[in-house]
Amino acid sequence: MERREDEEEEKAIAQREDDEDDEEKREDGDEEEEEGAAADRREDEDEDAGDKDATGIKEKKKTKITSQDRKYVPGIIYLGHIPPRFRPKHLRNLLSVYGEIGRIFLQPEDRQVRKRKKKAGLRRCDFTEGWVEFRDKRVAKKVAASLHNTPMGTRKRQRFSSDLWCMKYLHRFQWIHLSERLAYEQTVLNQRLRTEVSQAKRETNFYLNNVEKSAHLDKLRKKRQRDGEQADEKTWDFTQHQTEEEIQMKKKKKDSVSRKHLDKARLMEQQSQSNVSLLAKIFNSNPSQ
Fold this sequence. Notes:
By secondary structure, this protein is an alpha+beta fold. The protein contains six helices and four strands, in the order H-E-H-E-H-E-H-E-H-H. Helices cover 66% and strands 9% of the residues. The protein has a four-stranded antiparallel beta sheet with strand order 2-3-1-4, with helices on one face. The longest helix has 67 residues, at 2-68. 7% of the residues are buried.
């Protein structure tokens, strides 16, 4: 009996030990699982944080790129009045305060005006109109709206302070349009010069040919005079305008001719009337008579 009790106690103790080992193993497994899950979560959080950092850096780079490489649409302003002795450098100095300026073109005066000035003793070349290109068209619109009909100089003693700005923003106008217009004007001017040169050449050739002909005729005339032949005198074939007397004489002749025609017509009428009366007498006579 005592042995059985001892064996049962030993079995119970062994089962308890086995149960304790199983519980320890389960706890160790649960701890390991918890540690793995925590590590996985940390890795996921680290990845998410890295992705967020990368996206933030990309967005910052994009904003920097867009702010730096932003494409500005240029705007052009037309200047209708250019004061005397006003040059492109003055225009650039006055307008560069408001924004970045690109190309500038000022239309010079006509050649005839310059020739007149040279004859008068003035050698400078003034301008009549101009075009200014701003880098940003929004700045060009603001400048044209704010400076129109305002003095060019900000101070009283400043140069060109007595002149006013006359400017207008050209909507949808590009610099290529201006270059095309200038090229067209240049071609027209060249064509006009060619026609004038060709006409002058024709006139000079005609004059030289006539000079040669006259020299040849003079030689022939002198030769005939030497030989004793009669030289034909030069005759000019041209019609002279009629004088007032000749015109009046022609009118009188026309009046006399018209009167003669009227007289003839009257005689013819009288003769026809007489013939009619005779015929009437003949045909109206009685057959018995």
